Amino acid sequence: MIDLMARCLPLIRHRVLLVGLVAGLLAAAPAYAEQLNVAVAANFFGTLQKLAPKYQQANGNELLISSGSSGQFYTQIREGAPFDVLLSADTDRPKQLEAEGLTVPGSRFTYATGTLVLWSPKADVVDRDGKILRSGGYRMIGIAEPRNAPYGAAAQQVLTALGLWDKLHQDRKLAVGENINQAWQFAATGNVDVAFVALSQVSTDGVITGSSWLPPQSMYTPIDQDAVILARTSKRATAESFLNWLRKDPQAIATIKAAGYHVGQ
Amino acid sequence: MSAGFYSPDDLVALWISLKLASTTAVLLLLLCTPLAWWLAMTRSRLRVLGEAMTALPLVLPPTVLGFYLLLFLGPHGWGGRLMLRLGMQPLAFSFGGLVVGSMLYSLPFVIQPLQGAFQGVGVRALEVAATLRASPLDRFFTVAVPLARRGFITGSVLAFAHTLGEFGVVLMLGGNIPGRTQTASIAIFNHVEAFDYAAAQRLSATLLLACFALLLLVYGANRRAGAIAAHP
Questions:
Q1: Are A143 and A106 members of one domain?
Q2: Which residues are A229's β-sheet partners?
Q3: Which pLDDT tens digit goes with each residue over B167-213?
Q4: E-strand stretches of A170-258
Q5: Which chain A positions have a beta carbon within 8 Å of B193's beta carbon?
Q6: What angle do the packed helices A70-78 and A92-99 form, to 10 degrees?
Q7: A218 inside domain
Q8: Chain A residues within 8 A of B194 when measuring between CB atoms
Q9: Is residue A161 domain-shared with residue A190, that is, in the same domain?
Q10: What domain range includes position B178?
Q11: Is B8's Cβ below 8 Å from some Cβ in A?
């Protein structure tokens, strides 16, 4: 036991040194820099990771990003989760939090609107008009769970508008993923031939890999994603500055658009 | 291994996992030793109830466990309100909360090997020690504990490894906050969500190798402990 402790002691001393070093660095950081705890829906996580360094460069503040599902964050925020800002995948949860008095009044706005796309990783599978859906040139279609995932609900609306939903459902031709990332994985791994996914998942700088069809926006309710500042924040001014930047900064808007979202209708 | 093999965030996540797993293992050993001893030795009818209750975390889906813990430890739950009344912060979304969650989650993995090991010691050896005028405490520390050492090794390593791989409880109760409650398994989930499969694979391989090495260690140690017990 004593032998073990003797061996651990240098390690402990090393740690004290490290802690001292980190504390020194923190003390040396500019006084105005703050850390914002941002809870972000999984579909926007990659985009926010690209935005964070740009925001930090512009304002000096750092984003501490937690990714998860909007439903999970809703539950956690009600139980006092220490987030300053929520970037949700829908408008329902932010509205619900607003109604419960858990947000800063007037802070809610739509930061991005998602675009639904029927997609295959292979070229020449999905035609430009989406005729493949009627012709039945596929074994299964991947979609996200319509009850929880906004993109799943949109996919259901498109298939219903085409008069295909009931039949596909009956014939068990729908592979339902828990969220939109799972729907994407079904198609990317070849387990389904085509899937309804988010444009943000399959486009890099406006170019879509594989083949795709963009259903007209009139076929589904816009997939608006709302942001709110949470009432428990102690950094309200910083949170407001971040959301303001997200809404108005040309660089931020360009990054969000390049990721496959619409901004500001 | 190059210096940039892990990102700084991943290193922090690994450190949190390591801290969580070792804290949980140590605390569980302290809690479970008397509990397992009681379960092994008692003739009370309450034993069945105790066994069933301590095995429950095996059956409950981790996300359900995490959800109930969140409700219980949050500011509206009993646990959270008690903490507030005592002038402390509720445990949800803190490292302390993760320790509580992990202890519950890994409880059966310590109780069961320990109980089995204590039962294996048998009443006989303890009675012999008693006739030599060893006090109950003496009998426990000088007879039961050394004979049950396989149970202690297995229990502590399983608690450590099981906590290392924990996901659902930590995600729900911790909130996936970098530097505070984001463990390595949550960081893997984040990388997959962000389509960064290379980073996810690096962390996954690390966890896989670490847990495999640990399990090899347990089974190796158990073999030796078994050999010593057979030919002292």
A1: no
A2: A85
A3: 989 988 888 888 889 999 999 988 887 778 899 999 999 999 988 99
A4: 174-177, 194-198, 203-204, 207-208, 211-213, 223-229
A5: 42, 45, 67, 181
A6: 10
A7: no
A8: 45-46, 49, 67
A9: yes
A10: 8-230
A11: no
How buried is residue A129: exposed, middle or buried, by Cβ count under 10 Å (0-12/13-18/19+)? exposed
In a domain, B57, yes or no: yes
Asked whether residue A228 is domain-assigned, the answer is yes
Q: Clarify whether residues A134 and A206 are in a common domain.
A: yes
**What is the model's pTM?**
0.76
Range of the structural domain that residue A49 is part of: 32-113+224-258
Yes or no, beta carbons of A42 and B193 under 8 Å apart: yes
Residue by residue, pLDDT tens for chain A (265 residues) are: 444 444 444 444 454 444 444 444 444 444 468 999 999 998 899 899 999 999 999 999 999 999 888 888 998 999 999 999 999 999 999 999 999 999 999 999 999 999 999 999 999 899 988 899 988 888 899 999 888 788 999 999 999 999 999 999 888 889 988 788 889 988 988 889 999 999 988 988 778 889 999 999 999 999 999 999 999 999 999 999 999 999 999 999 999 999 999 997 5
Asked if residues B17 and B184 have their Cβ atoms less than 8 Å apart, the reply is yes
Q: Does B178 touch chain A (CB under 8 A)?
A: yes
Q: Identify whether residues A72 and A200 lie together within a single domain.
A: no
How many domains are contained in chain B? 1
What is the residue-wise DSSP string for B87-117?
T---STTSHHHHHHHHHHHHHHHHHHHHHHH
**Helix, strand or coil, per DSSP, at residue A100:** coil
Q: Which of residues 39-68 of B touch A (CB under 8 A)?
A: 67
> Is the ipTM reported for this complex over the cut 0.85?
no
CB pairs A-B closer than 8 Å: 61
Instruction: Specify if B3 maps to a domain.
Output: no
Which residue in chain B is spatially nearest to A84 when comparing CA positions?
B177
Distance from CA of A67 to the nearest CA of B (A): 7
Q: Residue A12: its chain B contacts at CB < 8 A?
A: none
